[in-house]
Queue: 4 jobs
Job 1
Amino acid sequence: MGIGGEIKVAPVGSDVALQEFLRLPWSIYRADPYWVPPILAHQQEFLDKKRGPFFEIGEAEYFLAYLGGRPAGRISAHVNHLHDEHHGPETGFFGFFESVPDQRVVAALFEAAMAWLQARGKTRLQGPLNFGIYDEMGLLVEGFDSMPALFQTHNPPYYEELLTNLNFRKAFDWHAYKITNRDVDLAAMERFVDRILQGQKVVLRHLIPGEMEQRAKEVFDLFNRAWNPIWGHVPLTWGQFRYLMESVKPLIRPQLAHLVLDNDRLVGFGLALPDLNPLVKKLDGRLTLWGKLRLLYEAKYGPIRKIRAMVVGIGQQYQLRKLHQAMILRSYIYLVKNTQCQMADLSLIPENLHHWIKVLLAFGAQRYKVFRVFEREI
């Protein structure tokens, strides 16, 4: 793979270069019918070293590669100080990776990123993470024939070869599963939920409008505890959590957000969102007032055709009580009864979460995408 021409890599040091960094994907994906352009204003804020939530706990540099004087590749190099505290100081990260199919361009990008990380004492490189495992992350290595769900990544198939040619190897995989079957026995599902809850001193109910703010601190604490054993977990700071919550709050339909309460104390939660990516794709990166109103309307009132079941969290002492199954079934029942939803995306699922994968397969789920984090020594 190669195009020809002189290659130059430089840090993003001006507003003009930042715009080139942000807009490069449009030239990479112009012929890809499944790519969903990011909302440029949101991504610019996320990357802003003064405003972005990541920079509370980390630092980063952005690099652009030019081929024959034109932008041809990009990458971020970043360090996460909280990751250092929890997992040791050896690992640095890369993210926001895009490139034309030219191995020289990719080699030059990673040379710059690794030099920046080496100067900060890092000896291992992992990615892509934009910026952590609870942001958009992973290289798509399976499932290129469909549009990504909300907050998932997408890339050309040739990216994997570009990385493995530079001695990157698999570090960890995350799976996306889909459920498409609407021909189910709803009464049997409801009886199963009743059996799960029978004898348990907990209440399973959906979110009450306006309750998100009241429960935010409880959700924050429970999330960090419940996901602590997961590969690569770094506890979210309150600032990161608030940013994430403000991003998803306008998209929440109360019937697709479930709480498990023990004497009104939160011990479990589950959240699914309508997948707005078909509309986001039409916006082509621009978010006008009209576009924002369309997104809000689709999220709250539009017909649901696809959802992304994003997260389930259960307190450790409640994890063997099948409460996660009860939450999934409640959403499943609601969708079949009240919507025309044709697909539920359940992601991202850590590859070693075998008990949860077994449950999803029992519900008829099929794996349809794999997102891989790579690593190599610096």
Job 2
Amino acid sequence: MDLKYGTNPHQRFAAVESIDPKKSPVVVLNGKPSLINFLDALNAWQLVREIRAALGLPAAASFKHVSPAGAAVAVPLDDRLRRAYEVEGRELSPAALAYVRARGADPKSSFGDFVGLSDEVDRETAEFLKTVVSDGIIAPGYDPEALAILKAKKGGGFIVMQADPDFEAPEREAREVFGMRLVQDRNNHRVTRADLANVVCGTLTDDAVRDLLLGLVTIKYTQSNSVGYAKGGQMIGIGAGQQSRVDCTKLAGAKADVWQLGLHPKVLGLHFKPEVKRQERINWRVRYIEGDLTRYEADAFKDALSQPAEPLTSADKSEYLSTLSGASLASDGFIPFRDNIDHASRHGVSYIAEPGGSTRDSEIEAACREYGIALVYTNLRLFHH
């Protein structure tokens, strides 16, 4: 089928076809996707399908530019998260719950995302999607009422794809770059609990196992180098596409801090005027946490509030973050230097899963023991390009 355009609009011709003309892994039910939409959809579907298989829970992913901004499974929300995600009093099915968590991981990056869901899309999920800025969705099926809601989104332009849950890709994959055809075996290793068997130090809780598996599957479909932080059944920070692993660790940690601070009493205590829309409230909370408002933003933020905001100082942030723990870190490549562990410890990391194999593994292990972090060697590199 012809696509809307290629990677950029000036790449006017773009098309997609199934390798096997008799069996397509994906059917487009509505809208006209671009090449990036298709790449996001195919990666998102593989991610949520693998998480579903690994954890036995409905899974969701929020994709932007061929990397997940967030991923999660259907774990209940407490009152603070319901307020932070602006879903107080809202009925959430397991599929909707998974997506609310996935989008809430990094709402700034998820703006205009492509959604992946492991389970059939029901009315509750479609009703939530109706209220957010998103380009499209891929799932194994749709309730008729949900499909009608989604087809009406964006004036009928919302992209709806249906994935074949039984489709298995060929053993080898290929791409063409600058007149060269590159062929390789697919990365068809399915991440399971067996990949967490080699615990070098510390002990894994059941929640840590869940979050580490979620993290490993997520970074498997994230542009490398990548590091991801998970907590409570969702990714809370993803550092993608950096040349330096410690930069991945810092980037993911900074995003995790913003997520953690989203539950700070001062953040949840902001009072907005009734006319301020849901997405604007979420955006303002993020900017309030980040703190580097421009003069224009400061005036607009003040105007959006019904009561003045208390300052969220650097001391407030440091004090709050210093009390947190229980986050899990997954790395797609081995951790080469202990500075990664030093930085991870600043962001509440208690569990780490990485391939191992660095010449400095002993230093990494010593750093983990120093901070009381449980360390697992997976012997599994998960680079994705």
Job 3
Amino acid sequence: MDTAPPRSGQGSKYDQLIAAAKAERAVMTIVVHPCDESSLGGALAASDKGLIVPVLVGPEGRIRGVAAEHGFNLAGCEIIDVPHSHAAAAKGVELVRAGKGEILMKGSLHTDELMREVTSSSGGLRTARRISHVFVMDVPGHPETLFVTDAAINIFPDLDTKRDIVQNAIDLCHAIGVKEPLVAILSAVETVTTKIPSTIEAAALCKMAERGQITGGLVDGPLAFDNAINPEAARIKGIVSPVAGRAQVLVVPDLEAGNMLAKNLTFLSHADAAGVVLGARIPIVLTSRADSVRTRLASSAVASLCAAARRKLAPLPAA
């Protein structure tokens, strides 16, 4: 089944993702420290939609108190009682390593606290691939879903890390039904110059894709934002490329640029920004208190589709 997010005129991009995820079996999801209304409510909403089966890890009294205060029904939810957020992060990772969950979902704790356990060299969830984050953005008026990476994990990634960032994003696109994603390596300009190091790295990434070090997508760069997503801007600049003007994946030079791009799209263009962390043993949903219910559902749907794709390739053994 082709589950690719729709082009203009085919309905909500997120609705299609949620529908595709509902067609798969609900995924066992370890929800770490869901101790406020938004994180607990988001997990339960995803459960009600048939996207996940939540296992709630945190102080049981606080979880039940939040549920009672906001009228949430915890019937059928497994709760694993731990004393505080740090213990919840450690227990959540332990459960994933034991094969008890296929998705890890952040609750009301700091991202750093959760990711410290995920990236631990002794008992974390690292793989040979570098961990990175992808925003899956529904931008009003733009026909394509935009995938912005990395705007949350890697601050100043080097070339090898960028290779993994690109490959993680391509693999995500495959998981949700985009068969050959169009990947733009962004910079301020579309020409290679030693004055802007990100243009040199963009050119190197394109050569890596040519030589099979990056697979599964069409990669081009450097491209400026306008000629990456706007066909007329690409035509005016004389850029002939299957990616220019039609890019789906936008690979930013560093976290600062990515964070500003994602927030500009969110607050000025009123885009929704679902997201998922990739490159670990399982997909990780990093929710924000500002996320709408629709965005939380879309993040759960994306992670669910990633987990289903992993399952079809090879089940993960317990550690």
Job 4
Amino acid sequence: MERWIVFFEKKCIVCHSCEVACQLQNLAFPGDQLRWVNAWATGKFHKASQRRISTACFHCDDPSCMSACPVGALRRRADGVVEHVIEKCMGCKYCLQACPFGVPKFSPNQRVIRKCSFCIQRIDNGKEPGCASKCPTGALTYQPKGALAQDLKAYGKPERLHMVYALENEPENYKLPVPVPGNVVKRFQALKWLAGLIPGGFLLFWLWRKEEASGGKNE
């Protein structure tokens, strides 16, 4: 069974309870933030409104971070959770550079990368993730079984992200990339391989020309 966390903007009161719960459940040092709440005021005077979002790892269906990690410290589970195995992490920051959402953060305290791991220490024991369990309004809702509701309109749902966002405005207004990016590492891997062949091709051509020239002199 796949698992999901849904953020409902209209229910969020920007209380930051999810941030605190996330820090405590994951033993994160002060400053090593794994979930963050942002809010923006829009409009003027009596027509003013507020946009708000609680952001963490998107738990992508095909994660760029996992493709970029050279030591297997990131792995995608069958339930859709992209787990970070902190014991394997060497803090190389490749995942940080690869993530199109800018989610992984380097911890100067632990010298490793930190990111949301969906509170696997809780969900594997039948509990809710820390953020959802402490949200007083249900703005963060944990759905542990099956697919999302058919009528739910949320950023990332068609792309099978496992942290999705039911927003009141367009995703661009929350600094979310549109369209939802896929695996950027795999997308450019073939180009990188081709680019790597170019210097080798020039070297082989130079050696061939050199050999041809020396052969002519010997004759």
